[in-house]
Troponin T
Amino acid sequence: MTEAEMAMEEKLRKKKEEEEAMWAEYIEQRKKQRSKEEEDLRKLKERQAKRKAQRAEQEKMMFEMKRKQEEQKQREIEDKKNREAEAKRKRLEEAERKRQAMLQAMQKQKESVKPNYVITKKEGAPPPTGQYHDKFSNVMFARAELNKTKEQLAEEKRIALSLRIKALNIEGLDTDELRKKASELWEQIVILESEKYDLEERQKRQDYDLKELNERQRQINRNKALKKGLDPEAFTGKYPPKINVASKYERRVDRRSFKDKKDLFEGGWEELYKQHLEKSWEERIKEYKERGSPKLMNWDPSNPKNKESYEPGARTYDADDDLDVMVRYIQAFLRS
């Protein structure tokens, strides 16, 4: 081998050694970096697992707290319902006691008072309606009863039935006692049926009174609207009518003030026409007084034909005027 080839080979060998050393150093650095990345990844996984455990614990605590709040709210709702039911039950018990006392008083009054006359019933006449047929009863109470829901009515009915219906103690009773018990129940059924009939008739009368009052109110509103010159059905609605002060077909802007519109609405066209006539009459009277009489008589001293200075016994007349007077006298004489 020549020196040049030897030098070239030496150069290539050195270059190869340098590349191998560089590659070994790169592999070593890559191993170190990879071990560092694996360590960081392991730490991140540990932190993630720890955070997941903490989050699960927090969610568990939150769920437990919400469950306790819901239970507390449910208990409060139940307590409120129980208090309302107890108050309603006490109120109905008090009403039932008052009703029973009233029925007993009415029964005693009926037994103590005896009529001193005899009622003869006619054939086909309706049965007597009882004492509940007052013309104007408690309308507000009826409206409150009508506004109740089905659930409220069912609850009140259940409580009332639980108060009114008593348990039958028929254990150990013989035949006579059972017959007596049955007769008492029958009498109670008759009393309840009579009360039911009276209440139904009272409800019919109240419905009739409400219809009559509504009709009277409608007639009053109709007359009021006619008096103001409006549509007859203007005041029968829920809200008062609008103040129509101009036609909807006019394109001119209404420049009148609110006071003028209100006066027009309160008085109507009749009041405006009356004011217009009074104003026109005053203007014409004033014009007539300023202008004076349009025609003066011949004998009137203020006539321009006569002398300006009037002296009794010295008045002068025109010949034409005397001739006209004579002609009129002759014509009147001939006609008569």
About this structure: The CA atoms of residues 4 and 161 lie 128 Å apart. Residues 124-136, 307-319 have pLDDT under 50 and may be disordered. Residues 258-331 form one domain.
